[in-house]
From TrEMBL:
Domain HTH lysR-type, first and last residues per copy: 5-62
Keyword Oxidoreductase included in the entry's annotation: no
Domain of life where this protein originates: Bacteria
Keywords carried by this UniProt record: DNA-binding, Transcription, Transcription regulation
Protein name in the entry: LysR family transcriptional regulator
UniProt source species: Streptomyces gamaensis
The family this protein is said to belong to: Belongs to the LysR transcriptional regulatory family.
Amino acid sequence: MDGGLDLRELECFLALAEELHFGRTGDRLYVSQSRVSQLLRSLEGRIGARLVDRTSRRVALTPLGERFLTQLRPSYAALAQAVADARDAARGVEGVLRVGFQGTANGALMRAVDTFQSAHPACAVDLVEIPLGDPFGAVRGGEVDAAVVLLPVREPDLVLGPVFSRQRQTLAVSVRHVLARRAELSAEELASCPLVAPSVEAPPYWREAQAPTRTPAGRPVPPGPVVTTLQEGITATAANRAAMLLCRSTADYHAARRDVAFVPVTGLPDSALGLVWRRAGETERVREFARVVGEAVVV
């Protein structure tokens, strides 16, 4: 038998491996049950061994079938993605691009969105707020195609694209707080301030960057409330329950508040924003938006 590939056979095997039922597999692929059997026999003939055990009561993969499935899934997904990428490129950038953001959609992001939509009027950009305490979940779950998140990003399954808005960090405190009237403060003074922390869905290294548990000299920083959204953190700050480290653009956005003061902090790494997306879910829309962000914002 010819040892070449037949994508229909592979598609049939993948569906059968999930359904473990010839009738449901046929319904899923819009073919008859006998056609499913034919495609499976043909694939097994190419391989030279049985992939599926079938009795009157059950359908199960053989050990070879299990191993073949494990190897086939990522390769088939990559092939499907390549076809989708080619289709996107042929059609141009169109459809809907969902972009997540944490806290506030700052001016740099909005400039990039405007530039992108002017260049690609057939592609609408939907901006979606994502939880402060779970910066990568919406990207991984497919709720957004890409997201603007606070750095650092050390996720092997995600691509970190353009980095922008690199600025000194700011401490948000209640106007009743002893530090509220300061022009600036040092990172060592955080040892006297309980800090609002993102929820535990965020990776530990990311939580530590947004709410350090020690000063640069090693002094412990008291823990404050754990929050899932920026609004929860600002509310806790206004109530004088804790202080909260913010990037400068977020502080500027909330500067009109009368119950919160924003004090620049020296001695900490600058905050920065970055565009991230799934390595396995990259599309022409995402690549083009990343290019526009890289050109439209100050890195």
